[in-house]
Amino acid sequence: xxxxxxxxxxxxxxxxxxxxxxxxxxxxxxxxxxxxxxxxxxxxxxxxxxxxxxxxxxxxxxxxxxxxxxxxxxxxxxxxxxxxxxxxxxxxxxxxxxxxxxxxxxxxxxxxxxxxxxxxxxxxxxxxxxxxxxxxxxxxxxxxxxxxxxxxxxxxxxxxxxxxxxxxxxxxxxxxxxxxxxxxxxxxxxxxxxxxxxxxxxxxxxxxxxxxxxxxxxxxxxxxxxxxxxxxxxxxxxxxxxxxxxxxxxxxxxxxxxxxxxxxxxxxxxxxxxxxxxxxxxxxxxxxxxxxxxxxxxxxxxxxxxxxxxxxxxxxxxxxxxxxxxxxxxxxxxxxxxxxxxxxxxxxxxxxxxxxxxxxxxxxxxxxxxxxxxxxxxxxxxxxxxxxxxxxxxxxxxxxxxxxxxxxxxxxxxxxxxxxxxxxxxxxxxxxxxxxxxxxxxxxxxxxxxxxxxxxxxxxxxxxxxxxxxxxxxxxxxxxxxxxxxxxxxxxx
Length: 493
Hints:
single chain; 493 residues; mainly alpha; two-stranded antiparallel sheet; 67% helix; 2% strand; globular; transmembrane; O-antigen ligase-related domain-containing protein; WaaL-like; O-antigen_ligase-rel_domated
């Protein structure tokens, strides 16, 4: 009888669990000193201590490790790093991701993880990392500025972190129950982050970043405020409002899935979905709305005609309510699209694209070097595909596109092979999240932002883990869409 992966990983994950427990105990140890800390910092410290305590008491498996990652990714502002010599590499979520890579490697060496040898997601992730390392080597062959060299070293750790998340998810989750649990936690934590953004918009005195600047943390970048057309743009724990909007929008298909299929506690997912949809316009970002449109369209394609109509009606009602509550904001967002052809921020950046062929001379194969295209030295691209071409060459671009296509393929494969309506819907939701993030990469440097980059590989890893469970099932052509029927029943005929 095969051993439960949670038990097999126990020996590797326990040290990380003990570290989390130490942090929890440390948070309570400072209770006598709470008078020396600002009230917001004290509250944030205790909340994080509670979260870590709950996680320590959970199962010692890949799901718990990735849950820690999600909590730190969304609830600790991304510009924050540990005090010390690590600087930007010392981001808490990034360190857990690097730990995930170590756990995966140790588990594979010790034989604690039994996984298919020819899994397409695993090999694509490894190819993505090899291409990045080859590009790193190419960067070392030319004269680099100090900014380019520092950025190149920093981005290597980012790629290792991405590799750790994807590999631990695809090989370590092991069961449908743990995959579903992780995705449910992802939606709930994402909904909490969206609610924090709403508080930032409603209450000008609410400063989440200042509140979360806990002892032992410092900032690796200036904490800028953003505004557009008279509206303050929210970011919550993200690095920028664009990243906040894209990640928020990409989580909507998963939230829709759980509102439809979760049998107990469905109200939690309705609240998370409402928070995600309400927070998105507050970022005043074109990219977020485009991401939302792609994700929802991809997921709604799996519904019946009646289900699609219900979504459309609820969407129109929601827009009307939002317009009444926040007058003028939707008009501002509409203007961003209607006036895009005259927007100087867009035209200026597209004009810079003419310099790309010259920069690529003699670097078409493996690029100019991973992480070397620094905006302060060159210019802003706001296009991850072009950034990947410049830094990783044609090899890097092909592997980056393949990462999205393989992720989409295994997510859709779950839907095509499974006969369980709930599992088919979850596969479609993951495909929608991956597709929406892939389209968003045309409009900003998605891999340069930790939340969007980590979410992409986490979604691909979860899709790959589900595909492992159904890979031996034959593909089927389903004539109906039970997901839509369930939605019809919930909303009313």
